[in-house]
Amino acid sequence: MQSSNHRLRDMEQHHPLLSAGADVEAGSLGAGVMVGGPHSGHTVGNRTLWFIQDSCGMVCAGMTWFLVLYAEFVVNFVMLLPAKSFWYSLLNGATFNSLAVLALASHLRTMLTDPGAVPKGNATKEYMESLQLKPGEVIYKCPKCCSIKPERAHHCSICKRCIRKMDHHCPWVNNCVGEKNQRYFVLFTMYIALISAHALGLSGMHFFTCIKVQWNECSDFSPGVSVLLLIFLCLEAILFLTFTAVMFGTQIHSICNDETEIERLKNEKPTWERHMRWDGMRAVFGGPPSLLWCNPFMGLQLRRLLLLSHGRRGGSEFSV
């Protein structure tokens, strides 16, 4: 048997325990380590609610919600409700608020979804013997979280876990972007870019309209307050639109080339079967192309989420 500080090649083909279902199959071991360790969290059976208690990430995630809600306030109460055209307010309000709800839902799904964490502490002698390694096969043990790392997994120093197909750790969603939540992160960047562009368009239209008449007739707020709110909204929208549009394009490019950002930066040569273009998109979003790809609520089990949330205890993370 090979030593535990080598890499297992083609492990996902030879060992189902290290495939995408390993979190479930080794869940009892992972949960046992979590309950007894310093990063304990609430468990229901072998399942737990994933949440990273990182102070920087929680502040950034809170700022994201605050800025989106601020944009909703300005768009609804400064621009749309005082507008003279009922249909203009109704159509734009329905569009903007729907996109905002989808953006926040995508943010929550990204933040509260296990990104593909490898069970912590599974690199035990008994577990490695159960793999029944063949001659020539080697495994790699992560010294930081004491787990056997599947191919394309990387250790995140913030999540303190090895993450399958880890793309990067994003403080704005307070989570890693990995195999199981990349879809929601792509939707989050797309919807934020859309509401930012919409807010910019509405702001330009509002400025153009108010120039022709008295500012008092355009808004229920004083002219000075209205201008300050609109200027801050425009700055926010420009920054968010630039950032999320670039990130959305980067994510789509990575998916279509089946290459994570970490793999690209490290210039790692692919040793896996690559899913290119539409195959990569189907692998991330699931099924054939359809409007369901844009639905962040797909697969959401509210009852299980409520059970996981009930009675939750403190800890640095609530995870698998």
Automatic annotation (TrEMBL):
<feature type="transmembrane region" description="Helical">
    <location>
        <begin position="86"/>
        <end position="105"/>
    </location>
</feature>
<comment type="similarity">
    <text>Belongs to the DHHC palmitoyltransferase family.</text>
</comment>
<dbReference type="Pfam" id="PF01529">
    <property type="entry name" value="DHHC"/>
</dbReference>
<keyword id="KW-0808">Transferase</keyword>
<feature type="transmembrane region" description="Helical">
    <location>
        <begin position="56"/>
        <end position="80"/>
    </location>
</feature>
<dbReference type="GO" id="GO:0019706">
    <property type="term" value="F:protein-cysteine S-palmitoyltransferase activity"/>
</dbReference>
<protein>
    <recommendedName>
        <fullName>Palmitoyltransferase</fullName>
        <ecNumber>2.3.1.225</ecNumber>
    </recommendedName>
</protein>
<dbReference type="InterPro" id="IPR001594">
    <property type="entry name" value="Palmitoyltrfase_DHHC"/>
</dbReference>
<feature type="domain" description="Palmitoyltransferase DHHC">
    <location>
        <begin position="141"/>
        <end position="267"/>
    </location>
</feature>
<keyword id="KW-0012">Acyltransferase</keyword>
<dbReference type="GO" id="GO:0016020">
    <property type="term" value="C:membrane"/>
</dbReference>
<keyword id="KW-0812">Transmembrane</keyword>
<keyword id="KW-1133">Transmembrane helix</keyword>
<feature type="transmembrane region" description="Helical">
    <location>
        <begin position="184"/>
        <end position="207"/>
    </location>
</feature>
<feature type="transmembrane region" description="Helical">
    <location>
        <begin position="227"/>
        <end position="248"/>
    </location>
</feature>
<keyword id="KW-0472">Membrane</keyword>
<dbReference type="InterPro" id="IPR039859">
    <property type="entry name" value="PFA4/ZDH16/20/ERF2-like"/>
</dbReference>
